[in-house]
Design a protein that fits this description.
The chain is of the alpha/beta class. The chain has one domain (3-150): Ribonuclease H-like superfamily/Ribonuclease H (Nucleotidyltransferase, domain 5, 2-Layer Sandwich), CATH 3.30.420.10. The chain contains five helices and five strands; from the N terminus they run βββαβααβαα. It has a five-stranded mixed beta sheet with strand order 3-2-1-4-5. Helix 1 crosses helix 2. 35% of the residues are buried. This is Retrovirus-related Pol polyprotein from transposon TNT 1-94.
Length: 158
């Protein structure tokens, strides 16, 4: 049940708020996705990506519990793909610095989910990041490629 998480740092030209996006697959089928403007202004791309990562982790844990309610077990950690190396480094660093203290709650939440073996943060190349379609304007070619990976197709009758 892979989940792809991404953020567009300060992408709103009026407010400079970032946009979070994530999508989760069950097999090859897209089962959950979200695009949401972050409620606070991120001071760095790392912060924006980390907030998106925390939102994706929360949704992924909810999906895992929903499957358990239907007696569908998923015992392995869910891979959560992130293309921001600084956010991944923050996941792996238990020491907090003054620059990152304001995202400590998200940090503790994500680390707790990793320690409980619910999720596993996996680096992904930006060119393979499926969640880009949710957070950034893309060229037509890139949009078509990612849309096909999402298994979303145009209705031929339209």
């Amino acid at each position: 049940m892979p989940t792809y998480s991404d953020a567009d740092w300060a992408g709103d030209p009026a407010s400079r708020k970032s946009t979070s996006g994530f999508c989760t697959f069950l097999g090859d089928t897209l089962v959950s996705w979200s695009v949401k403007r972050q409620s606070t202004i991120a001071r760095s791309s790392t912060e924006a990506e980390y907030r998106a990562l925390a939102a994706a982790a929360a949704d992924t844990i909810w999906l895992k519990r929903l499957l358990a309610d239907f007696q569908i077990k998923h015992d392995t950690p869910i891979d959560l793909f992130c293309d921001n190396t600084s956010a991944i480094a923050l996941v792996n660093n238990p020491i907090f610095h003054a620059r990152t203290k304001h995202i400590e709650i998200d940090h503790r939440f994500v680390r707790d989910q990793i320690q409980q073996n619910f999720i596993n943060i996996v680096p992904i190349c930006t060119t393979d990041q499926i969640a880009d379609v949710l957070t950034k304007p893309l060229s037509n070619t890139r949009f078509q490629l990612i849309r096909s990976k999402l298994t979303v197709t145009q209705d031929p009758s339209i």
